[in-house]
Design goal:
Elements lengths: L14 E2 L4 E2 L4 E6 H4 L6 H10 L3 E11 L4 E9 L3 E2 L2 E2 L14 E7 L2 E7 L4 E6 L4 E4 L3 E7 L5 E8 L7 H6 L3 E6 L2 E6 L6
Antiparallel strand pairs: 1-2, 3-4, 4-5, 5-13, 6-7, 8-11, 8-13, 9-10, 9-12, 14-15
């Protein structure tokens, strides 16, 4: 009988549900205003805030389960509460580089929306509260928007080999943006999007 490689044994992680942090130290990525600036439609508000500070918009903690037969991954993303102008803080948003790769998101804390859009322009917005689980089919771009007053965090499960494709979202954004009007979130057509 062949010996099982160490990488192929089961692994458990402990997630602190109050903070959204794993007890072990997975890879951390921060997205600050200096990186996210082009994605917000109100560039005057971006410039004004950028003069004062390079605000943290969100951070992510990835953990890769590389084995001899698979490459499953998990990540926790934490989006801060806040707005740039009247547009709520959000993740960068991406397609998968491999167009046959889905993903699963599980909202742990906070409230907001998961925005989804195909390359052809089909748009959906899923309302998120703690406990919402969303399957993101292959070929749908995805972005999370925090519309609450507290940090929103969620866990994702995906294949590492799926990759991230950011270029189209960086160029045109999603067809709808989520802004605050009279104390509540509303959707408007993206002013950055070419007609």
């Amino acid at each position: 009988m062949d010996k099982i490689p160490a990488s192929d044994f089961p692994i458990s992680l402990q997630l602190d549900l109050a903070t959204g942090l794993f007890e072990t130290g997975p890879a951390k990525i921060e997205r600050r205003l200096s990186v996210m600036a082009p994605l917000f439609y109100d560039q005057e508000a971006v410039a004004e805030i950028a003069k004062q500070e390079d605000r943290l918009i969100y951070d992510m903690f990835h953990y890769y389960f590389d084995t001899s037969l698979s490459d499953m991954s998990t990540a926790v993303s934490r989006i801060q509460a806040g707005k740039i102008g009247d547009e709520y803080f959000m993740t960068k948003g991406h397609f998968h580089a491999l167009n046959n790769q889905p993903e699963i998101y599980f909202c742990l804390r906070g409230e907001g929306y998961l925005l989804l859009e195909t390359r052809e322009g089909e748009f959906r917005a899923e309302r998120w509260t703690p406990g919402t689980v969303t399957h993101i089919p292959a070929q749908w771009a995805h972005r999370v928007v925090n519309t609450g007053e507290d940090t929103l965090f969620y866990i994702s499960a995906f294949h590492k080999s799926a990759g991230h494709e950011y270029e189209l979202i960086e160029q045109r954004g999603f067809s709808q943006v989520v802004i605050e009007r009279d104390g509540r979130p509303v959707f408007i057509p993206n002013p950055r999007r070419p007609e």
